[in-house]
């Protein structure tokens, strides 16, 4: 078994060397002044260490100034390019997936007008500049590596009179699904992501206004990862079940990476990709009743290190043939890791999951409204995502505590140059 | 007019020198190793500057390691002390206000049992250790300056058989209010705050479990401020209307600070304070229709700098006597700043507001579900908060675009020593 990936909350697994969380990095720009000034002072900011090995960190006015690393508010992610931004970069800490339903009278010409506006507004916002109609330029000034990524649902491509890729349709119904309309489908997706939730909120608002003449809001799903700066960048994050989540992903440095992510068929989607978004509710109440050995058995990995139950380190290759003293597989046949392990070199996806933890619904019995916004990018949903998902849907011990309640598939068209617009290959 | 403060979304105003956003700092502790190691490498992380003055920031595996400042995940805020933590420190980036309704059979003895458990769990979580019943110690390991602050509503004090402070009751009804039960009242408040939303979610979950045998969840309100590290620490934040929000606050270095914040009456509340929480919906749809001069007129401050309309810098003292060429006041009589300006040295509060931007309600006409969790601490609600609030309720131009939809008042009891528990002065 070679490379592995998976498609649901835990996503541990793999026989690959450790890829860092980050993806390609060419897009990130930072104005130099702030970094230089702050960088030079950091070395002098260490307080006096004590016998206990603890440092007192003063956050009063003066010491805080000395200690602060360079603020990342001004950091920008380039919008224009062969591919859209917000896909292969290191994921931002906060994301909003926003879906729209096209108005009835939004015809092909209107779609092109809308996409020119959306492109212009998104390119400005990600560059720290206000859209033309925005009277709050101050809120746009610190994008904090903001990205805005556009996706088309089946309805958009149909309205545009284009040929939809074979995979651009709702996923087949799975027995485990309890899908809700308020988290599913959509004609147009705008994915806004930033390391600062204030920058994200403003950009979300601005994009809502850009689209409003052409489409109605269908749903917004907000998610978060660990805050930027909380951990070393290379560390794999944990989801809210406490599992190390995201051990394996295709790495931009791999030869196979481009073929796994980008469509290369000469169509209007050339240079684009697909996004699968699944909202997976995690039942914290019943998960809380499960002890650690049972949790690890269900996943196939250790909770502390994320290592396969047959290994000692997170990125150790799992040994699916290993048996216990009583002759049972150490990694159970229905463990999440084994089910999610890809069966071919093509069955790999770029996972970009976000946690959600919304306010409990009024009157709900459960005190939690918690889960995962599972998001993955792949050149072909049917070849890469679907086989993994089918195995997980048919038998994954984690399904005991998880329920898919939302599902959507979007075509992410290629990027564009500064004189073009997102969707031009479909609409021009 | 001396010192000033206010009690609603914009909160510009003041004649005071610029206080930093941060409060007291004695509580913050950080394990030394990570800071030292990372701090030493930051100076070498500056990339090559280009002619355009931009630095390319690489976030690939290797460069990212070099650039990273010390991760703040391990940072702790001391739990035990004369006062509770989470009040006067620099506000964390993320907060969850969680309210509970006591179960009918939770008597005085049960309250004491609950508070011992809550205290033990909160002290562990804020120290990066899992509560006794927590099977996910890994999620507790990186508190990111987590604080957990406990408050008692009128129902709690009554159940305990204690004497409630005169101010511990719902605020009087204001004509502008459209309060909803799902955001109002409560017998017990647990305020969880952290610079990392993942740490916050886990702590919220753990505290829900601590309290569950004794009380039912009433509501959860989540809020955010700018991400830690996005801006210089001393910079005043903007709210989602784009206003500089929080220019004036009592500063811990002032002589008056302790008297403004801490109850000093020899009662069980000695060393405690009060929390007023108001959920203020901000109508983004109608605000979007207002041009900049009208916005500035409503607030009394400039949008770009936050300076009073009679000044040029954020912390300039406003001149309420200045007139325009036509004889009208430059700062309108009903501007938010003028209405919020305190009329006495006692009328001051410590504001700790958070933004909220939740998913739009299904079927709602508005594409926004946005506003402010206005939170303030003061020794006496009636003397300090109420006069400001009454002036704002009676006439504040900002009320055109804002609606209070939730309201709660809590007694924040004093802190405790490591062998005590929060609420011991009431329950022992």
UniProtKB/TrEMBL annotation, chains A, B:
A Pfam family assignment: Dyp_perox_N
Source organism per UniProt: Helcobacillus massiliensis
Segments of skewed composition (Low complexity): 7-31
Record domain Dyp-type peroxidase N-terminal: where: 84-225
GO cellular component: cytosol
InterPro entries xrefs: Dimeric_a/b-barrel, Dyp_perox_C, Dyp_perox_N, Dyp_peroxidase, TAT_signal
Similarity comment text for this entry: Belongs to the DyP-type peroxidase family.
Coiled-coil positions: none
Chain positions covered by the region annotation Disordered: 1-31
Main enzyme class: oxidoreductase
Name used for this protein in its record: Dye decolorizing peroxidase
Molecular-function GO terms, alphabetical: heme binding; metal ion binding; peroxidase activity
Superkingdom of source: Bacteria
NCBIfam families the record matches: Dyp_perox_fam (TIGR01413)
């Amino acid at each position: 078994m070679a490379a592995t990936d998976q498609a649901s909350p835990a996503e541990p697994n793999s026989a690959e060397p450790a890829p860092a969380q980050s993806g390609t990095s060419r897009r990130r720009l930072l104005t130099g002044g702030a970094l230089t000034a702050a960088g030079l002072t950091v070395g002098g900011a260490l307080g006096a260490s004590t016998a206990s090995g603890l440092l007192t960190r003063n956050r009063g006015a003066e010491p805080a100034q000395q200690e602060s690393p360079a603020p990342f508010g001004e950091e920008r992610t380039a919008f224009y390019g062969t591919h859209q931004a917000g896909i292969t970069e290191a994921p931002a800490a906060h994301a909003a997936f926003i879906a729209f339903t096209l108005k009835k009278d939004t015809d092909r010409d209107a779609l092109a007008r809308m996409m020119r506006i959306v492109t212009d507004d998104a390119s400005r916002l990600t560059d720290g500049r206000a859209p033309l109609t925005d009277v709050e330029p101050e809120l746009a000034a610190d994008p904090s590596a903001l990205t805005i990524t556009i996706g088309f649902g089946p309805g958009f491509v149909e309205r545009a009179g284009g040929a939809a890729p074979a995979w651009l349709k709702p996923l087949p119904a799975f027995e485990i699904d309890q899908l809700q309309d308020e988290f599913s489908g959509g004609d147009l997706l705008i994915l806004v992501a930033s390391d600062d939730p204030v920058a994200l909120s403003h950009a979300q608002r601005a994009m809502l206004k850009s689209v409003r003449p052409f489409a109605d809001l269908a749903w917004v799903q907000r998610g978060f990862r660990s805050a930027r700066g909380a951990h070393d960048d290379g560390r794999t994050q944990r989801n809210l079940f406490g599992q190390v989540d995201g051990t394996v992903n295709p790495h931009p440095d791999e030869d196979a990476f481009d073929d796994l992510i980008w469509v290369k068929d000469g169509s209007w989607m050339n240079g684009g990709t697909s996004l699968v978004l699944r909202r997976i509710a995690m039942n914290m109440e019943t998960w809380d009743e499960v002890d650690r050995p049972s949790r690890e058995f269900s996943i196939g990995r250790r909770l502390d290190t994320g290592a396969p139950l047959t290994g000692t380190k997170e990125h150790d290759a799992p040994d699916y043939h290993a048996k216990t003293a009583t002759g049972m597989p150490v990694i159970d046949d229905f463990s999440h890791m084994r089910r999610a392990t890809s069966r071919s070199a093509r069955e790999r996806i770029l996972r970009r999951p976000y946690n959600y933890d919304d306010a409990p619904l009024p009157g709900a019995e459960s005190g939690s409204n918690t889960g995962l916004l599972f998001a993955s990018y792949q050149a072909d949903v049917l070849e890469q995502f679907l086989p993994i998902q089918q195995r997980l849907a048919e038998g994954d011990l984690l399904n005991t505590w998880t329920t898919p309640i939302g599902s959507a598939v979007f075509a992410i068209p290629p990027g564009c140059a500064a004189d073009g617009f997102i969707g031009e290959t479909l609409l021009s």
